[in-house]
UniProtKB/TrEMBL annotation:
UniProt entry keywords in alphabetical sequence: DNA-binding, Phosphoprotein, Transcription, Transcription regulation
Chain ranges of the HTH luxR-type domain: 149-214
SUPFAM superfamilies referenced in this protein's UniProt entry, alphabetically: C-terminal effector domain of the bipartite response regulators, CheY-like
Species whose genome carries this gene: Candidatus Symbiobacter mobilis CR
4-aspartylphosphate: modified positions: D61
Domain Response regulatory per the UniProt entry, residue ranges: 10-126
SMART domains: HTH_LUXR, REC
The protein's name: Response regulator
Length: 217
């Protein structure tokens, strides 16, 4: 292996959307010190990749199927404590970013960021520094962190709580969209954000949470 290759930042891209992974790879191909050394579309593939190869940074989507983002980050850091994790997320909410950082991520940026944010973020986090999207970092400073005794559902917006209750009541995404007069995609976004905040990854877990906290429709 040449010296240039050795000095490259070895990146593992983890996102359940193939088009996102492909887009990132196309961008990184034109960055001289970046090397896409692996990719994964779910938590199983991710853990398999980590068991076989060494990476300088994990570029991780916060909303992965099968496991909440915070739970996945905690699991990775328990097994690979020295691996820097940079979250690349569609969510720009301070509470979600704080959950990721608390779980062990070294950085958090949103998917609508420019390259002049993404590239420095990767370089910083791979060097074991912290990087958070500037605008989001400012919000986090002025966001009150829930106490240990606060229920996670206190973080939900009114609309997310509506979606929560209706999902537990058995309504489908289509039913909820029709009731609220919004698109299926918008309901799905509310669902994803709500489940991330509650640290659940399935309707079964969501129902269990509702029962435990006496939340009904």
């Amino acid at each position: 292996m040449s010296k240039m290759q050795t000095n490259n930042i070895r990146i593992l891209i983890v996102d359940d959307h193939a088009i996102v992974r492909s887009g990132l790879k196309m961008i990184f191909e034109h960055v001289s010190d970046f090397q896409v050394a692996g990719e994964a579309s779910n938590s199983r593939e991710l853990l398999e990749q980590l068991s076989k190869n060494v990476y300088d940074i994990l570029l991780l989507d916060m909303n992965m199927p099968g496991m909440s983002g915070a739970e996945l980050i905690s699991r990775i850091k328990a097994c690979y404590p020295c691996l820097p994790i940079l979250v690349l997320s569609m969510y720009d909410e301070p509470h979600i970013a704080m959950m990721a950082i608390k779980a062990g991520a070294s950085g958090y940026i949103t998917k609508d960021c420019d390259l002049d944010v993404l590239l420095p973020a990767i370089r910083a986090v791979s060097s074991h520094q912290t990087f958070i999207t500037p605008g989001l970092a400012a919000k986090m400073v002025f966001t009150e962190t829930p106490s240990a005794t606060s229920a996670l559902h206190s973080l939900l917006t009114n609309r997310e709580m509506q979606v929560f209750k209706w999902l537990v009541a058995g309504l489908s995404i289509n039913d909820i969209a029709a009731t609220l007069g919004i698109s299926n995609k918008t309901v799905s976004t509310h669902k994803a954000k709500m489940m991330e905040k509650l640290h659940v990854s399935s309707i079964v877990e969501l129902t269990r949470y509702a029962i435990q906290h006496n939340i009904g429709a």
